Amino acid sequence: MSTEIIWLGSIASLVAGLATGAGALPILFTRRISDRLLDVTLGFSAGVMLAATSFSLIVPAIDLSGPLVAVFGLVLGALVLHLVDRFIPHFHPFLGGEGRPSRLPRVWLFVLAITIHNFPEGLAVGVSFGSGDVTTGLVIAMAIGLQNMPEGLAVALPLLREGYSRRRSLWYAILTGAVEPVGGLLGVALVSISQPLLPWGLAFAAGAMLFVVSDELIPESHRKEFAREATFGLIAGFVVMMFLDHLFT
Asked: Which of 48, 174, 207, 227 is 20 to 30 A distant from 150 in Cα terms?
């Protein structure tokens, strides 16, 4: 695999990660962002991830190596993220603390939570570029960037409400996306070393992302009385990503 593909995959995952900061920019201008809007955008984010997982990760994995590899890779990805989620200390503003007990400041536990969330997304981008199909890689990067924007807002708002300054809240939102290029570089490097790992990598990333959608995004978007609006946000995100996937691939 060419060095250009590796660099392209790394840069694409970096840009997708930086979208977290872009999504948090509204906090520089206003603190009044409704819970309804936040829940709808989180639902939209979940829908985008579900469509990207289905059409850009699981289907190609099945096409390359059949359903068994896709099933085992998907389950492995979900199990690994479950173990990481269970043992690494972290904190969700709406779901509370998880993982092992820790004396770290809560803001860093919060950053760890989003880091755990974002790593498989960067991995998905990297693995997609590792296939050598730049178009598919760009579609995945676009999907991750789209869904990162609402998440950036969801990161920054709780920090703002806890007394952090606008700039510091924005900085932490940007920081949480910084792990994605690490996952992207790892994904594209592994697949470039051994092409037989490609379907496993695609399925693994899909399983990890499905875990995040079900364990975090959907519960967070349904935490208040706007669950129905969040559901339609999810459907809208799925439809938009499904259309973009078939438009460009």
From this structure: 207
